Structures are given as C-alpha cells and as structure tokens.
Amino acid sequence: MMRHREKPFLFLLTTLVWTWFFWFAAAFSEQSWLQFPNLILTALGFLGPLIISLLFVKLGFWDGNVKDFIKNNFDIRLVYGRTGVYLLGLILILTGTPLLIGSLVTGESPADLARFSAPGAFLIIGFLAGAVEEPGWRGYAQPAMQRRMSILYSSLVISVFWSLWHLPLFFIEGTYQSTIGFQSFGFWMFHAALIAGSVILGWLYNQAGKLGVIAVLYHGFGNLMREVFSFETSTPMSTFIEFSVEAVIAVVILLFSWGFMTKKQ
Fold it and tell me: Which end of the chain has a smaller Cβ tally under 10 Å, C or N?
C-alpha cells in the first residue's frame, strides 16, 4: 500500500510554531508592527504558510515539485470560464450584500454607509494575505488533508489552525486585529468568519479542480474589496451583518453541495 507523502498535520503545526515564534516576539516588544525591527518580526511570521509549504514540497512531502506547486498557486492564467465566474460572483456577494442589508436596516443608502477607502497599510496587507497564506492553507494543507477526509472536514480542521494562527495579531500594536480587541464581540465574529470562510474556500478550491491560485485571488481580492467597500463605522451590528453574509454563503454551499463536500476527494 502506497503511503501518502503529504504531512498535513505536521505542516499545520510547523506553520503555527513558526508564526507564533515571530508574532509573539513582536507582541512582547510592545512596538507597533510598522516600527523597526518589529516590522521584520511581523513579516517573517506573516510569511510562515508560504515558506513552510515551499519547504515541505522541497523536502518531498508532496507528489509534485516546487515549480509545479508555484504554478498551481500563482499562475492566474489558469483561472478562466466557470471558475472565474465563481470567483467574481462570490467576491461581489461578499462585498456588496452587507452594505445592502445595512441599508435596509438603517434606512441609509449604501453610499452613505460605505467608506470607499482604506488605510494604506491594511489595504496592502489584506491583498497580500492571499498570496502568502493560501499556498499554505489551501494550496498544501487542503489537498493533503483531503487524502484522509472529506472537503468539509478538511476545511473545518484547517479553520481551527487558521484561527489559532491569527491569535498573536490581537496583541501586536497597530494590526487590524488589535483594533478589534481581544475577546471582544468582533474577536469572536472574526474567528467565526474564518470557519465559514474556510468552508467557502475549500469548496471553491475543489470546484476549480484543486487550483490554488483561485484561493489566492479570492482571499486577496476579497480582503481588498471588503477594506475598500466596508462600513465607514464598525459597530457590533455591521460586524454581525458581515459575518452573517459569509455564514449564509457557507450554508448555501453545504445545502446544495452536501454530497460533494462530504465525500473524500
């Protein structure tokens, strides 16, 4: 019986240890993440999923080589047809629906509710998140985990590590997560959204034929669009609305693709 080369749990644990080492060091410094040398520590932690995934592929914990892995996760020419429609549609729903719901609840127009701008640092980091995180979460861990369990269970396991991976950011001054606040309502909504988001990304990745770049683009452009077209004032209500839209998308996917999501690929 052939043993699988992939090491999903070892990858997830190694990525967590790598990132926590640098991010907790940055948190204990009590500097802003943009201050030197804290910027270096923050960047090294941020690059964890990408660096560890490339390392695991290079070490042979993968069926392909590094060149093929990079192509699967970064070659945007692979995205076309139905895959591109799924990508665009999900991003538009994720971005526009919360503002439409907010408009119905408050009676204000979406234009009055939206910010249509964002702090430069958050905008850049949000966009880059897809490029540095998704080769690890969906590019490596998702298919490796699916050798052992279904898309749904794989997505849920990854969401636990994805959530834990973000935890130190709540203690680093100046990060988006630090503005939310540790153990606040926004804190719990942030982590709940990661569970829903992991289900969506797991479905999208597999619908695209196990294409990592689709997750990279969804994560990156999704973050960017939600930063640019977000509620001008963050409140518990706006936070809950944004989470609810993502949760409903995940539930709809499960309702219409239950067999697909619960079968080992």
Answer: N
Segment 60-104, tens digit of pLDDT = 999 889 999 999 999 999 998 888 899 999 999 998 888 888 888
75, two tokens: 């070659």
Range(s) of the domain holding residue 128: 8-262
Residue 16's contacts (CB-CB under 8 Å, 6 or more residues apart) are: 161, 164, 165
On whether the CB atoms of residues 159 and 198 are closer than 8 A, the answer is yes
Q: What is the pLDDT of residues 136-152, one digit of tens each?
A: 999 999 999 999 999 99
Number of structural domains the chain divides into? 1
Residue 2 lies in a domain: no
CA distance 156 to 145: 11
Query: What is the pLDDT at residue 59?
Result: 94
Query: Helix or strand or coil: residue 119?
Result: coil
pTM of the predicted model as reported, rounded to 2 decimal places: 0.92
How deeply is 202 buried, as exposed, middle or buried, from its count of CB atoms within 10 A (0-12, 13-18, 19+)? buried
CA dist 248 and 135 (Å) reads 25
